[in-house]
């Protein structure tokens, strides 16, 4: 038993070492991602449930590395946040969206573009300020954008964060709380922050039809949202049953593989047409 214990320990160290080495490799690779043009944006449609119109597109960052392959954002975003690359990534996303804007409007008309914003971008707000300046200079209305932020940002909100949220609101940029339900806050609390949308986390949606607790929770969120003028977006909607139930509950918007996966801009419209 002693022997195998020692052996396990060696294995364990090796696993830790490999994880560490892999992470170091990713950090080094991430430094090259922008100059080597390895990043791209995919867009995922969000539908109004009452008429199934595509009213919003969520921009989702993709990193294709020539040797390491496609690295998911759930892996590289936390690394970017830890190693101060997230500001540069965020700036790249802003620039790419501005560049895509004309093509988006040609294909979808008046559609809102939802952008994931890391809390760290609020801690170093120069790039957010620069985005507002760019919109102004190019006469792009802020109403075309929605920033997806997390509850955590509001929980430890500093004076600067509050001021920036105000600036965004005045520029017409909508605010959505991402992954709602995984943190601590209540909708009533969110109301103070001029939040326009709340995205119900996909962990709630995936078990919605079987789990009565989650159903009650969703119903309450939708009811309270209506009282507070906050609209609910369900994320990760994968089945018709989930969509039907959400619609019955009065949920406003739906996003998920059932109706549309994220695609590069050139393929988004086509993927919708094929569905009909
Ligand atoms: P998120 O903001 O919660 O984005 C939704 C995620 O769910 C996306 O994963 C999307 O592809 C996926 N998804 C959409 N519909 C379904 C469905 O029906 N079923 C399932 N199982 N998944 C679905 P993705 O693209 O891998 O992004 C993961 C996370 O990475 C995002 O989660 C977001 O937190 C972060 N992220 C992505 N792009 C950016 C970015 O530009 N900036 C920042 N700061 N974070 C980003
Ligand atoms: Ca999001
Ligand atoms: Ca989300
Ligand atoms: Ca998420």
At a glance:
The protein is an alpha/beta fold. The protein contains 12 helices and 10 strands. It is 53% helix and 21% strand.
Q: How much strand?
A: 15-25%
Name the structural class: alpha/beta
Largest sheet geometry: 8 strands, mixed, barrel
Radius of gyration (CA) equals 20 Å
Q: How many DSSP H or I helices?
A: 12
Termini separation: 62 Å
Task: Spell out the helices and strands N to C.
Answer: HEEEHHEHHEHHEHEHHEHEEH
Q: Which residues sit in consecutive blocks of at least 5 with pLDDT less than 50?
A: none
Mean pLDDT: 92
> What are the distinct ligands in this entry?
ligand C2E, calcium ion
Assembly context of the chains: single chain
The percent range for helix content is: 40-55%
Shape: globular
Strand order of the largest sheet: 1-2-4-5-6-7-8-9
**Number of distinct beta strands:** 10
Domain EAL: 23-276
Protein name: EAL domain-containing protein
Organism: Methylophilus glucosoxydans
Task: Provide structural commentary.
This protein has about 280 residues and is of the alpha/beta class. The chain is built from twelve helices and ten strands. The chain has an eight-stranded mixed β-barrel. The longest helix is centred in the N-terminal third of the chain and has 32 residues, at about 1-35. The N and C termini lie far apart (about 60 Å). The protein binds ligand C2E and calcium ion (3 copies).
């Amino acid at each position: 038993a002693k022997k195998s214990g020692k052996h396990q320990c060696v294995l364990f160290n090796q696993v830790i070492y490999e994880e560490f080495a892999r992470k170091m490799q990713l950090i080094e690779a991430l430094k090259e991602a922008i100059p080597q043009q390895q990043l791209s944006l995919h867009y995922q449609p969000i539908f109004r449930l009452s008429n199934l119109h595509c009213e919003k597109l969520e921009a989702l960052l993709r990193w294709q590395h020539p040797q390491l392959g496609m690295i998911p954002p759930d892996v590289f975003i936390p690394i970017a946040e830890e190693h101060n690359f997230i500001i540069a990534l965020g700036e790249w996303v802003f620039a790419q969206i501005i560049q895509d804007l004309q093509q988006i409007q040609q294909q979808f008309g008046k559609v809102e573009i939802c952008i994931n914003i890391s809390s760290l971008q609020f801690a170093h707000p120069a790039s957010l300020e620069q985005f507002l300046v760019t919109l102004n200079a190019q006469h792009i209305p802020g109403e075309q954008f929605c920033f997806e932020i997390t509850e955590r940002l509001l929980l430890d909100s500093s004076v600067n964060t509050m001021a920036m949220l105000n600036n965004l609101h005045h520029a017409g940029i909508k605010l959505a709380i991402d992954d709602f339900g995984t943190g601590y806050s209540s909708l009533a609390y969110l109301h103070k922050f001029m939040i326009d949308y709340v995205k119900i986390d996909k962990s709630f949606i995936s078990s919605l039809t079987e789990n009565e607790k989650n159903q009650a929770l969703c119903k309450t969120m939708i009811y309270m949202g209506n009282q507070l003028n906050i609209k609910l977006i369900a994320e990760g909607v994968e089945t018709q049953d989930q969509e039907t139930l959400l619609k019955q509950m009065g949920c406003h918007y739906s996003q998920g593989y059932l109706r549309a996966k994220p695609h590069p801009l050139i393929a988004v419209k086509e993927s919708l047409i094929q569905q009909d």
